[in-house]
Amino acid sequence: MWRSATVRTSLGFVVLAIACVFVADFEISAHAPWAELGRLFLGLVQPDFEAVDYLGEAIVRTLAFAFVGVGLGAAAGLLLALVFRHLVVRTSCAFVRAIHELFWALIFLQFFGLHPLTGVLAIAIPYAGIFAKVYAEILDESDPSPSKVIPHGTGLVSALAYTRFSQAWPHLVTYTAYRLECGLRSSAVLGFVGMPTLGFYLESSFAQGQYATVGALLLLFYALIATLRLWARPRLLPFYLLAAPFLLGDGLPIRWQNVSRFFTEDIVPEPLRQGEGLAGLVPWLGDLLANEALPGIWNTLVLTQIALVATGLLTLALYPLVSHHFTGRHFTGRVRGALGHGVLVVMRSTPEYLLAFILLQLWGPSMLPAVVALAIHNGGIIGHLIGRRSNEVSLRPDAPRGIERYAFELTPRLYGPFLAFLFYRWEIIMRETAILGILGIATLGFYVDSAIQEIRFDRAMVLIVITALLNIGVDILARRLRNRLRLRHTAQSEP
């Protein structure tokens, strides 16, 4: 029997999402959207690999940015995890991970330009904050007993290596491998702001209506993700990490005076630059809040709430695809399970930004493409996790089958972990919702991108800080809800 608090919380989220639907913009405004979708599907079925003469370069750059960015992020995150209990470290990590990689890329583009350092830092900085939090959780959950029996005088590094690290190592490796998959998605998406990765060529091919080329690039990206465990073996990782920095490509020389000007002039609020002081700063902030921040926050919250509930509903519908309680253990069942697993791999491997970009081209600018993109990607992730969790549940021999097994045997037992995973993804969905504004949806990212295009970096930085604070607030709320409902989940449970 589900606890009443869990039921009330779930119903509250659903009712709030329904209310948000009535104020959301779901209009399909593109000309012949379903015909365009059919052309895209035809491109996936009949991809033109021969037309992609830049294929090798796109793959290499995508892999290089992912390996260097994730490698630096993991190294920094491991060091930060050792001192994560300090308030300053926790706060700093929460802030940097609350800012999406594309926002970081937009910032670094202003003074590094299309230099490889832009892409590397855009991945490494937020990932360092994520790694620090998760590594600290994993280390804290290790058994402290071995540390009590080590010889007196053992050095700190040796003590950690033989006690906590030895226990946590499998979880650290598993989570780092998952983050490498995320890094590949982030690296591909960086192409949408000009970095020479798969996303750059995808955007240009789509703009020219070359759907066969788009299909080839998408299938190639799915193949990279699906075969990650085959080619990213632990013994090969040192070679990849050593080679990757040399494969990032060249960029224009960095002009360090641009860096200095950005921090000393560009991001300083205009009234302060012109000597108006607080008398000019207050109306400047008021105008920014009224005309950009508040509309952006409202649309971000509305879209996030709808996408969160849509993700949950899609997850509950999809997890049976990879649960042997529904597919069966015989040959036919294993085939069905493999097909279901393939569907969820494609769903979770497709970056939300990339999917939203495609749907916006097909359906026109509205919140609908963003909701569908967020629900598909996050539903694929949580559906995989819940399906895997369902395989650990033992049913009695006379347990009912079909819809009764789903509704009365498995779903009630899995609902707690399902909510825990959903609340964990809440802050991530918020981050993605904000960044989708760059594609034209009026979330906070739309106003950030507009300010940068108008070379008003002071306004852009204020909006980015507001975005980060909003994400931190949602993360705190989600954590409190998990604690209140006694939902146990740690990030090491991610795929």
Please, could you describe this protein's structure?
With 495 residues, this protein is mostly helical. It has two domains: 1-30 and 270-495, MetI-like fold, CATH 1.10.3720.10; 33-266, MetI-like (MetI-like fold, Orthogonal Bundle), CATH 1.10.3720. Helix content is 74%, strand content 0%. The protein has helices at residues 4-21, 33-45, 55-82, 87-97, 101-112, 116-140, 156-162, 164-189, 198-207, 211-226, 228-231, 237-243, 256-266, 270-273, 277-318, 324-327, 331-349, 352-363, 367-390, 402-435, 444-453, 457-484. The chain crosses the membrane at residues 58-82, 102-125, 211-232, 239-256, 297-319, 428-448, 460-478. It is found in: Cell membrane. It is a multi-pass membrane protein.
Highlighted features:
single chain, 495 residues, mainly alpha, MetI-like fold, globular, membrane
